[in-house]
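wait is this the right file?? whatever heres the structure
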C-alpha cells in the first residue's frame, strides 16, 4: 500500500471511531458539562495517542532509510538497509540500495585511477631524485673528496666535514626515493619488500616482528602494491602515534583461501581518533582490490590494522 493511502487510512480510522462515539454513547450539551468535557478530553487524548502510535509504525521504514542514508560511507561498502513491506517504501529502499551500488562502483573505479596516477607520479619523482639529484650529489661528493686529498689542514678537515654532510643527504635522498617507489617490491616481491619495511622501521625503541605464513599463494601485482602500502602506513602510524615498543606484521593465508595482512602494535590504542588521510588512503586501496579493511583496538590493547582479501590473484 502506498504511503499516501496508509497515512490516510490511519487518520480515517481514528476519525471514524471518534464520530461513532459521538453518534453513540457520548452526548455534548451547551454549555458543556464538566463530566462531558472530561469524557471529550479523554477521548481526544486517546485519539492523539492512537494517531501518534499508528504514524510511528507507518513511518518506521522511512526512519530506517534516513538512518541508513546518514551513516552510508562509500569507504565502508556493503552495508544496505533491508527492504521491508511493499509499495513506495520498499521501492524507495530498493532505489537507494541501487544508487549505493552504483556510487560504490564509481568510487572504486575513480579511486583506482587516482591511485594508479599517484603511484606513477611517485615513481617519476623517485626516478628523478635518483637520476638527477642523486647523480649530482655523487659527483659533488667525488669532487670534494678529490679536493680534500690535495688540501692542507685545516681546510682538509672542513672538506671532510662537507663530504660527510653530502653523503648523509645522499642517503636521505635514496631513502626517500625508496619509500616513494618500492623498487624492492617490483624486483624481489612482497615478502622481501615487507622484510625491508620491517628493517626500516626497527629502532632501539621499536621492535618490528615479521611473520610470513607458509604456503602463501602468489598475489596479483596491484594486490601486492596495496598490501605493501597498507603495511607501510600501518607501521608509519605505529611509529608516529602509538608509543608502542613492539609491532607485529603478519602475512598469512585465511581459512577460505584468501590472504590477510595484520599490523598489530602494543601502544596506547587508537581510541576515538578521527580517521585522517592515511587511514582513508588505506580504505581506498582496499576498495580497489575488493578487500576488507578494519582499523581498531587490538586483542590485548594497542591498535590493529587488518586487510583481508578473498581473491588474492585478482588485479594482476
Ligand atoms: N597505531 C596507532 N596507535 C595510536 N593511534 C593511532 C594509530 N594509528 C592511527 N592513530 C590515530 O588515528 C589518527 C588518524 O590516522 P591517519 O593515518 O589517518 O592520519 P595521520 O597519521 O594523523 O596523518 P597522515 O595523513 O599523515 O597519515 C592519527 O592521527 C592517530 O591519532
Ligand atoms: Mg598516518
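ok assuming it is, sequence goes like this
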Amino acid at each position: 500500500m502506498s504511503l499516501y493511502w496508509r497515512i490516510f487510512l490511519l487518520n480515517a480510522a481514528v476519525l471514524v471511531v471518534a464520530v461513532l462515539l459521538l453518534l453513540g454513547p457520548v452526548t455534548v450539551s451547551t454549555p458543556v458539562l464538566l463530566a462531558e468535557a472530561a469524557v471529550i478530553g479523554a477521548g481526544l487524548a486517546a485519539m492523539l495517542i492512537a494517531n501518534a502510535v499508528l504514524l510511528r509504525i507507518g513511518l518506521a521504514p522511512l526512519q530506517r532509510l534516513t538512518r541508513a542514508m546518514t551513516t552510508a560511507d562509500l569507504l565502508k561498502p556493503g552495508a544496505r538497509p533491508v527492504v521491508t513491506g511493499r509499495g513506495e517504501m520498499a521501492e524507495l529502499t530498493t532505489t537507494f540500495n541501487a544508487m549505493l551500488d552504483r556510487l560504490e562502483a564509481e568510487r572504486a573505479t575513480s579511486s583506482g585511477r587516482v591511485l594508479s596516477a599517484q603511484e606513477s607520479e611517485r615513481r617519476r619523482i623517485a626516478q628523478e631524485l635518483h637520476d638527477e639529484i642523486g647523480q649530482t650529489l655523487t659527483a659533488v661528493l667525488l669532487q670534494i673528496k678529490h679536493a680534500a686529498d690535495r688540501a692542507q689542514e685545516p681546510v682538509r678537515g672542513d672538506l671532510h666535514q662537507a663530504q660527510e654532510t653530502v653523503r648523509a643527504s645522499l642517503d636521505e635522498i635514496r631513502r626517500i626515493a625508496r619509500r616513494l617507489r618500492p623498487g624492492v617490491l617490483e624486483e624481489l616481491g612482497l615478502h622481501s619488500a615487507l622484510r625491508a619495511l620491517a628493517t626500516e622501521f626497527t629502532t632501539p625503541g621499536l621492535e618490528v616482528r615479521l611473520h610470513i605464513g607458509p604456503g602463501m599463494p602468489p598475489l596479483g601485482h596491484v594486490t601486492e602494491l596495496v598490501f605493501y602500502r597498507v603495511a607501510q602506513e600501518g607501521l608509519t602510524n605505529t611509529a608516529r602515534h602509538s608509543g608502542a615498543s613492539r609491532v607485529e606484521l603478519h602475512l598469512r593465508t585465511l581459512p577460505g583461501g584468501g590472504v590477510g595482512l595484520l599490523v598489530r602494535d602494543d601502544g596506547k590504542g587508537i581510541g576515538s581518533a578521527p580517521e585522517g588521510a592515511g587511514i582513508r588512503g588505506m580504505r581506498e586501496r582496499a576498495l580497489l582490490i575488493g578487500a576488507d579493511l578494519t582499523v581498531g583496538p587490538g586483542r590485548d590493547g594497542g591498535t590493529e590494522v587488518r586487510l583481508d582479501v578473498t581473491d588474492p590473484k585478482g588485479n594482476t
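The CA atoms of residues 28 and 36 lie 6 Å apart. so i think its the right one actually
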